[in-house]
Amino acid sequence: MNKTKYNAQMKKWAETRKKGKWIFIFKFGVLYWGVLTAILFSLLMHLIDPEPKIWLRPLISLVVFPLGGIFFGLWVWWSSEKNYKGFVQRQGNT
């Protein structure tokens, strides 16, 4: 990755982290990843293996995937924080 793009990503992360960890996890992990994945999974599974109770699979998916999204959001937060702290430390050393 080129330095300009990396610096822009770190600047964007600095703004994102100001909003807070749990806001990020809720928006990115639960809503964006969890709900979107639940909807896509339910649609795909309906095409592959239709269920007589059409409401059951989406209902279960809308519970399970957003819960998984919490862990996904935590992992992305942790990874981004690690990169950001390394970036800040390198900036201080130059």
Mean pLDDT: 93
Strand proportion, as a percent range, falls in under 5%
Structural class by sheet pairing and helices: mainly alpha
DSSP helical segment count = 3
Low-confidence spans: pLDDT under 50, at least 5 residues? none
Would you summarize the structure shown here?
Helices cover 87% and strands 0% of the residues. It is mainly alpha-helical and 94 residues long. It is elongated, with a radius of gyration of 18 Å.
Task: Walk me through this protein's architecture.
The protein has 94 residues and is mainly alpha-helical. The protein has one domain. 87% of the residues lie in helices and 0% in strands. Helix 1 crosses helix 3 (56-93) and helix 2 (21-48) crosses helix 3 (56-93). The protein is elongated and about 60 Å long. The relative contact order is 0.15.
Task: For this entry, give a set of tags.
94 residues; 0% strand; elongated; 3 helices
Detail the topology: elements first, then pairings:
Elements: H1 3-18, H2 21-48, H3 56-93
Helix pairs in contact: 1-3, 2-3
